[in-house]
Amino acid sequence: MTDISFIIPHKGRDDMLLQTLASIQALELNGNTIEVIVVSQNTEASDALQAMKATLPLEIVFSQDGQTISKSRNLGVSHAKGRFLAFLDADIDLAPNWLLTMLTTLQREGIVLASAMQVNSAFAPPLERIRTALSNAHLDTTVTFLPGRNLFLKRETFDAVGGFPEHLITCEDYYFTERVAQLGGLYYTSETHYVHIGEDKAFRPMFKKEIWRGQSNLASIKGRKIPLSEWPSFFVPLMPCAFAILTIGSAVMGSFSMAAIALLMTFVPILVYAIRLKWLVREETTLWHCIYFYIAYFPARAIGTINGLWSEISTSSHN
């Protein structure tokens, strides 16, 4: 019987996926048996990907283009034989001790889901350093949710929560890990690590991605209890946009004192979050980069959330 099944959804180019598979090949196994299931939305597998089968127990499953990442993950599990499931994105470079550390972490009392900390790639630009610092805000402790790019759990835990939510385009990891947290602890360890090869490195592409990522913010609330710590992530991004609109409206109406107050309130959330972020990144980047991050992040998330809300209303009106 296979011990560990790696499930990797994939779409597009193979370069990052091949690097992910190479890192799996380099893992310390200590006698454990593994299999790798790539669920691809491409129409065919490249020669380079097919060649990996010679040195890695690899199965390539083709799925319908445009389906959610949750559906790809669940499809991968339907082909899996392992007692443990390792969910990876197709752009993750694992440390050699990742697997053994994950197995050890799951042996901790009360722990049902494990994940490793993120480290920067070589010559990481400021935005990647910011993303890494945010990812590692809480280490060597239980957390309320875990990002979906590297998750490790028992097959029985996955079955107990019914898999990933296939109706969500994004935010599926929030939804899934929150449901798993009802069964036990989610542990984020610094004893091993990974590099997110495809991490955001430039602010303009990040802005577009955050609009896409934010579209399932509100939909992800349905069917789960939202911890108090998560509520700011839904509402704070809307505040600078609302106050910016109020600033313009007040100025047009000639109420310049109100416009001044609204303008000040536009930047208060940005500055507060930027100062907190600067504390997290330490000397990795400047306060200006932290401010610039939230100047881009908050509007993008707000636009994505509003787009998602509009989509929900439009869908409901046609049902």
TrEMBL record:
InterPro entries hit by this protein: Glyco_trans_2-like, Nucleotide-diphossugar_trans
Domain of life: Bacteria
Record key words, sorted: Membrane, Transferase, Transmembrane, Transmembrane helix
Entries under Pfam families matching the protein: Glycos_transf_2 (PF00535)
Keyword flag Membrane: yes
SUPFAM superfamilies named in the record: Nucleotide-diphospho-sugar transferases
Cell division keyword on record: no
Record GO terms (molecular function): transferase activity
Domain Glycosyltransferase 2-like: 5-156
Protein name: Glycosyltransferase
